[in-house]
Amino acid sequence: MNERDDVIPADGAAEGATEEAPEGAEQAGENRQNDQADGETGGELLSDGELNEMIEHICNSKAEEFRMLGYEHVTGREVWDCVSDKYEKKGYPPLHQIVNDILSLKSTQFMNWMTMSIYRSAQS
């Protein structure tokens, strides 16, 4: 796995996000390096705050998708908690992998995670 994250052009930044940035999204932004990708020209680097907003927007979008499928009470925070749970042991991957993990999250995976997290909190 490559040590650096891919760079996202600033013109792709999300606007109008309303929920607070998911906990841990700051770490994902901090773990990236500001080197430009090989062969990429132009484009500005996003600040950590802008990356957090973008990750938050993607999580909110996935939560909205789940709500359209009938899972009415899903939040962007819960989506981020589900996706970032697997980063606890290995650390945060490159940004493109985080985005892929969020966008490819299936409702069954999410519901399995929710069930397990409820069991874990009941045992504590």
From TrEMBL:
Top-rank taxon, per record: Bacteria
Sequence segments annotated as region (Disordered): 1-49
InterPro entries, alphabetized: Post-transcriptional_regulator
Annotated organism of origin: Paenibacillus chartarius
Name of the featured protein: Post-transcriptional regulator
A Pfam family assignment: Post_transc_reg
